[in-house]
Amino acid sequence: MSTPESWAYLNRVVEGPSRALQELLAAGRDADEIADGVRRRASWLGGLAEETAARHDWDRAEQDLAAAAEAGARLLTPEDADWPRLELDRAFGFAATGMSEHVRTYQSDAVTPHALWVRGGAVTPALAQSVAVVGTRAVTRYGVEVTRQIVGGLAAHQWTVVSGGALGIDTAAHEAALAAGGTTVAVTACGIDRVYPARNAALLDRIADVGCVISEYPPGTPPQRHRFLTRNRLVAALTRGTVVVEAAWRSGALNTLSWAEGLGRVAMAVPGPVTGAGSLGCHERIRHGRAQLVTGADDIRSLLGPAGAVDAAEQYELQFAPTAVQGLSRNELRVFDALDPGVGRAAQEVSAVAGLPLALTVHLLVDLGKRGLVAREGVEWRRAEE
Amino acid sequence: MSTPESWAYLNRVVEGPSRALQELLAAGRDADEIADGVRRRASWLGGLAEETAARHDWDRAEQDLAAAAEAGARLLTPEDADWPRLELDRAFGFAATGMSEHVRTYQSDAVTPHALWVRGGAVTPALAQSVAVVGTRAVTRYGVEVTRQIVGGLAAHQWTVVSGGALGIDTAAHEAALAAGGTTVAVTACGIDRVYPARNAALLDRIADVGCVISEYPPGTPPQRHRFLTRNRLVAALTRGTVVVEAAWRSGALNTLSWAEGLGRVAMAVPGPVTGAGSLGCHERIRHGRAQLVTGADDIRSLLGPAGAVDAAEQYELQFAPTAVQGLSRNELRVFDALDPGVGRAAQEVSAVAGLPLALTVHLLVDLGKRGLVAREGVEWRRAEE
Description:
Two copies of one chain form a homodimer. By secondary structure, chain A is of the alpha/beta class.
């Protein structure tokens, strides 16, 4: 385990994402070693030498960690159990196949983050079943109405709604998730201690209360155009699919959609009136087969697969699974495994052991119950007798 | 040439479309001979014997022709120069390839009509550059607004708008074409002397004034459900493509769209708000790749190709045409050929010789002029010096 200070230092002097840093990590050097190498301009830094040339002596790891703590945030690193490894590996592993033109164009951004600043609850459970809902800042009444309908339907089925915390559709999505008692996650493009846009201060606090706010940038970082684009890749990477609700011709939301494509996620768009320009971008993507047309939460859920399902490869394996338990998807298996044979557990306890949100856990338990794999006795759940 | 009475008799005793009748015609028997055969129950009638068993003595050709004349209509047969042969041959020729599931399901309807009753002007010029615009009877304000925008844009580029004369989107389409000074054609599902729906009496008169009203059924025929479906195939067959503007789940307009697919025409649908059910059918077709998403007249025109273009096969030939004149599309060639070398002609005269509407003729002349193939001198057009 490297020290948090090393990760914080690297996060400060290397603006993510950095392919050079990932290559050093992949080669087996840990964060302490790399941080030390950067400080003393080691010969083995490769591309990281140039990337850190101007910043390497900006050593303020302790101040950054303190500023984050002050803002109620923590630093999450790839060494933490809560690091969303599965999501990031899947997304950037797909990107590495070079199948997407978008990824080929923005190659330097098609790299996993090296650290995340987080305000709020655990990241991995919140993202276990998540979908991005994004769109234009210049919303119409139609866009807001559709966002509410869709997010309400997703939240009712325990889907976490991830968005960018921006004004317009992002705000409508977060608010609708909160109103429906769902979990929601905001991925921002500035330091975790900064509030942008300013008028969403209270909203971001409420998001941190039930889900979390995530940023790839060290405290104090101002939101800048290139960071919005980099942030968009993270929104697409952390979720199973991205839905663009309303986007005109050059909306940034379409960039998130391109990332979803490039990272092997499901890209979806909602059509709208052709009498305004609000849905032009959505129509364009649908027309060119770059996004699937969705009209509501049911469409989205069916494209993303059942509660626990993950992707085509896994589906293929499940299809040939010889036993019911082997046929369980990842999230279902997490819940099933959280029940020791012969021991009853309350849903709350199952949720804690499985590392999944309580509501999603109950949802999956009920589902497993219908398939005869688990049974409820009073308030306790146990594996069904085999 | 067979007599009109023979065709009128066949149109009365054989409810179109009839594959058995088409087979006899294809085998070289003319309408006089077939009519005579039906009257005397000839041995060579094949399937037509059964089709006409109950009706063969219903011999009222003269009354039908008189009733049509009374209503200002005439009988158009495959022997007339104005018979829309090219359109019908292309559509039902494509259907005969059996490529479409819709056509396989409704095989008995995938047959060309044997006669058409027409009220108004010439059919072939009106259809030379035409597109069907159809939709639900249960229109929303959105549907009407979109129809007006689209039809206005099509009419401005000399496209004839064909529809079914029904309430709702059909009415909006016809009215918008008339308001824009365009040509419009109604294909109805009842006798040419009947007005259905009754409240569209004045509209149908206005359509006949600038374009035409067409029916496959003999005078007096009431509109019935199966006839609407058969009529829909004719709307799709006579046009280069069909646009569904607004259609809920089970709208009849989707049937026209299926025919467009089945007859090798371009199937198009306009998206709309997902907050109502009005565009459900459109979204469903787009989602399944059974209709192209279009948002306005420009999209439609670009899918249907340039003013004179017809289809992929023709495009392929044009691509390898060694001279500019050989590179002309069908309609362009009709206009060019209407100008004799060395002789100047007014556009009105060119239009008459080419058998194309005046506005379309002018449109094409201007286009040919830009390409240096024709030149205007005062009010006259002539071929450019070679």
